[in-house]
Amino acid sequence: MASTRGARDVSSDVGGGTDVDGAEAYVRLEREVALLLRRSRAISGRLAGELHHGLEGAAYGLLVLLDDAGPLRASDVVARLGLDKSTVSRQVASLVDLGLIDRAADPGDGRAQVLSTSVEGHRRLSELRDVRRARWEADLADWATRDVATLAELLGRLNRLGEAREGEALGD
Hints:
Number of helices: 6
Low-confidence stretches: 1-13
Helix content: 55-70%
Distance between the termini: 40 Å
Largest sheet: 3 strands, antiparallel
Strand order of the largest sheet: 1-3-2
Radius of gyration: 19 Å
Number of strands: 3
Mean pLDDT: 85
């Protein structure tokens, strides 16, 4: 059970601007983000399996990245996903074999390869995303649209902070 030293239950304070104990707020943030990440890994594994039986969760994340970011070199995929080169190479090979991504020579450097979502990969991923979006809409039906937008904005800010930290760690 979490400590409540001077802190109130902040679940009713979302967006309310009410003061909370700073230390407790960061403890709670860490716990909630850790839970979100665990759930995200499990969901990625399930969604990968929906794309194709036996496909690993990392492959789903790679496909999403390529679909969102456009064509990328394999080295950029490694850097953005924070996975080791061998894991990315294995996932790329699997996705290429399934026809979900395409591999082509980099026009700027013939030694490198550029990866992109195939037409089939985009179609199948779009279908999964439509189902997920409908699930979010159903799960959050009693939330105000403003609250959903606020959550998206705050998560975006958190993600940008994480990306900046990763860039610093990689020396970008």
